Each structure stands twice: as C-alpha cells, then as structure tokens.
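Posting this for the archive.
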Amino acid sequence: MPKTDRNVHIDIIKGIAIVLGPPLTHLRGFDTLFDERLRDVLWTFIPGNFFIIGGYIIYKSVQRYSPRQFIYSRFKNLIIPFYSFLIVYALLSPVYIRLANLMGVESLYKGLGFLQSIIRFFLANATLPQESHFLWFFPAYFIANILFFVLIKNIRSDLLRLIGIICAPMAGVIMSDIFGHYYIPWMFDTALVMLPFMFFGAFFSRYQAQVEKFLYKYKSMSVLFSAAIFVFLWKTTHYMTWIVFFVIHNYFEFYVKGVLGFLFLYLLAISIESYSHSLKKFFVLCGKYAMAIYTMHMIILDFGWIMRKYYYLLTERVSLFSIFLLSVLVPICLSKYILSKNSFLKKCFLGI
C-alpha cells in the first residue's frame, strides 16, 4: 500500500457508511426494497463507525491543536451547521405539512409553536422536533469529540485511559436513568456511551501499520471475510438493537457489533479499492460530502415521498430507489456547485 498522509480506506468507509446509513435507513418504504432486518443490522454499527472514524482522525492530529483551537474548530465544523439546518427544517416543516395535505399524503410531522421549537433547539437533545430529530448526531458527536480530546491530550497512561473507556458509558447510562434520556441537554449521555468507539479509532490509528499489514496479507480473502462478518451481524441482530441497548444496557453486544461493523466496512473498502475504481471514486466523493448528505437527505426523502404519485412511469421499487439515489446525489451537487461558492453559506451549512 503506498504511503500517504490520508488513508483512502477511511474515506471509502465514510462514504459507504453515509450512503448505507441515514439516506437508506430513513427511506419511507424501506421494507418494499429490503428485508426490515437490514435496517436493524445497519443501525447496530453505522453510528458507532462515525465515532470510530472521528477517534482515528483526532488521534492523528491531537498534537497540532490547543484545547481552545480544537473546541473552536469543532464548534465551527459541527454546531454552526447543526443550528443552521435546525432553522431550515423548522421553516420547511409547515411547507411539507401543507404540501402533504394537498397531495393527500399523511404527514409524518406535527408543526410546533415557535417558542417550543426554540426551546427544543437550544436543549439540542432527544426532544428535537420530529422533522430534524436525526440531527441528534451533531451535539452528541461534538461533546464526545471534546471529551476524547481532553482525555487523549492530558492523560498519558494507557491504564487511566482504559478506566475512562469503562467508566464513560456507565456514567452515561446512570445519567440517563436518573434524569431521563429526554431531559439531558446536548445528548451528553449519548456522547459518553459512544466515547469507547472513539478510543477504538485511536487504537486503530496507533496500530494501523500492523493491522493493515495483516489485512493485506489476506487481501484476496477480504470479500469472504467481510461477507462472513455481515452474516454474523445478520444472524445475531434483534429488532431495534439501538433502542434495546438503552433499555437493557447490553454493553458487550453493542460495542462488539460496532467494532465488527467497522472491520466489515474496512474489508469491504479494501475489496472496493482493489477491484472497482469507479466505486472507489464514488464512495470517496460521498465521504468528502458526508455532512451535506447527512444534513440534507431528509429534505429530499420527505418531498420525494409525497411527490412519488407522479412517478407514474416507474414501478414502486424503482421510484423508491430513485428517491434514495437523489437523497445522496442532490446534497453533493448543492454543496459542490452552490454552497461551496459562497463564503457565508459555506460557513453556515458546510462548517468550513
């Protein structure tokens, strides 16, 4: 493998995760295209993989930032786009409801009063308005990034870091039990629960050369190994595993499946890099515009769903797949050709 500062496999993994994650799993009519269990399997490891990637990236750059610089950078990259899109979804929600009524389609959302929306926006927790609830990732990821940076920057002992990995999710679950998940601002409990994934990302970054040397030794078997992992995840995944974790606190299964999911995607990335240049370019592009896809996909999915009756030349499966594909491609085009051309829009919506 050529020596570069940037790991192309991480870019591919990011692209695969963002395509198979929110746009696909949030698609209305998902069960028309796939077995419903696929959604549950994807949600056992997709969220954790973004935290693993975050830990991988931060660990490599931790020495370049002071705490103040890092917090400012994360605030600019995550929180400004978070609030910008909360406002966009709040403004589009009544338009969506009105259009759904005109089209005779049942609306997914109920409009909130302005004051209630503002309160929920600033709490930035699990009570986010329904149309923008999926944006929970931003405050949780922001808090987890800060906690991870502080621990990596200031604690040199691997033993103390291990204690932190063990105690963080316990503290998150205890906090959720005492105060209630829906009353904890900025998804702080979720950030604590996801923190071990960031440490795994740091561990992978630290021993990347050894891991890749081993994986490349068996590169020809990467497709088989990734398929075996996916079959294992499929056979052992129960309904709504993501929610079940918060109910029964099944740490072992949750983290093991998250790490196995990362390994599955990494082996898949090796296969794609080796055998398909076109897929490699596509997923690297999706990874580059992952934030845009994540923040905009729901707009495309919602409006595509209520307009689907006009796809009279298409079968239901083809129309649903078209909506899914648009929810990936439209955000990329908007970001690349419109938002990135204006400095104000770029700061507000792309965090650049």
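Residues 229 and 264 are 6 Å apart (CA to CA). Residues 67-103 form the longest helix (37 residues).
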